[in-house]
Amino acid sequence: MPQQFDHGYALLIGVGESRYPRLSLPVTVKDTQAIYAALIDPDLCAYPDNKDHIRVLNNKDATRDNILEGLQWLQESAKADPEATIFVYYSGHGWLNKADNRYYLVQHDIKPTKLAASALSAEVLTEALRQIPAERLLVVIDSCHAAGMATSKDPEEIIREVEQEDIELADEFEDFQRVSPSKGFVEQLKQGKGRVVFTSSRGEEKSWIHPDGLYSIYTNHFLEALQGAANKPGDTEVKVSNLMNHLSKVVPESVRQFYQKEQTPNFDMATEDFVIAKLKGGKGFKGWQEEESEAEDKIKELASVEIKAAGDGAVAAQNSTVIAGADVIGEGIVFGNQNTVENKTMNQNPTDSYTKYNIKINKGENIKIGE
């Protein structure tokens, strides 16, 4: 019988859609959706599936204020639960201000003409993390995405696009360089007891998308690690060291194989090893050789899972209720058996391939499907 990872708390951030379209990175949302689905799966990581334990900020929800509010929630959760294990995952742009060597995460609501003032600086993020009293805290930053990841571009490319239209905007971007989180930034983040910081690449290396287009290569292998790729037969938990061992080996290999480029994950650990999730719901692991095929199928399956059971863009997973208050809108919408949808409008584009899904709604009121 699956065991729940009762003391797990996660904040997942996929910037995806930027207020400034040239900075949008849709694939980052696929990353957070898949990690979310793996975390709450009772037969995988077994985090409790509720807003008290896991929150996701994607697209327009990934604002500076919402990210800081999410970190405040983690602070309160850790204070209330002395055994808390905290997991923060960010997928999006990360830029270095060449003028003062300060690093910034570029969230949804940045102001292009005021990047330094509106983006989430390393100092602000570090201070928010420092306030979280958990003795087990993992921060993963998958930034500096490479060409091929939707509309991802270097600041220099953006300058060439806009300088004829808006010289003020071009001047602002000229001060920034898209690089992996600096060593100084990582050193800041790991301050405090029990901190571990992962970054998907180093220096001027890029973070590459998997050729199948589902996720970044880093996230694809992260999902493998959550399913036991570096564990031994009989294990019931995934530890930080398991993640490190797998990612450090296979991410560079995959990037060389697919792109003949270098991508070197970085790990900074200022604590003893700790458990980050259940493995196979705590039921026991047969070994990666036996489990790999099923795990790879599961990774593809996770790509179809949408997030949120409440709010804008709400989506129904199996045995869940969509709470009234906003339309169910989006790609890859999944409906499971025995779902309850109340007072909702299901907007789906008839030109898309949603007709391939068999939709079962056990109970519904005032439901509309289509235009």
Q: How would you describe this protein?
A:
This protein has 371 residues and is an alpha/beta fold. The chain folds into 2 domains: 8-294, Rossmann fold, CATH 3.40.50.1460; 321-369, no CATH class. Helix content is 30%, strand content 19%. It has 10 helices and 17 strands. The strands form 5 sheets. A 6-stranded mixed β-sheet has the order 2-1-3-7-9-11, sandwiched between helices. Strands 6-5-4-8 form a 4-stranded antiparallel β-sheet. A hairpin with a 4-residue loop joins strand 4 and strand 5. Helix 5 packs antiparallel against helix 6 and helix 8 runs antiparallel to helix 9. It starts with 7 loop residues before the first strand and ends with a strand. The model is unreliable at 146-155, 161-170, 308-365 and 367-371 (pLDDT under 50).
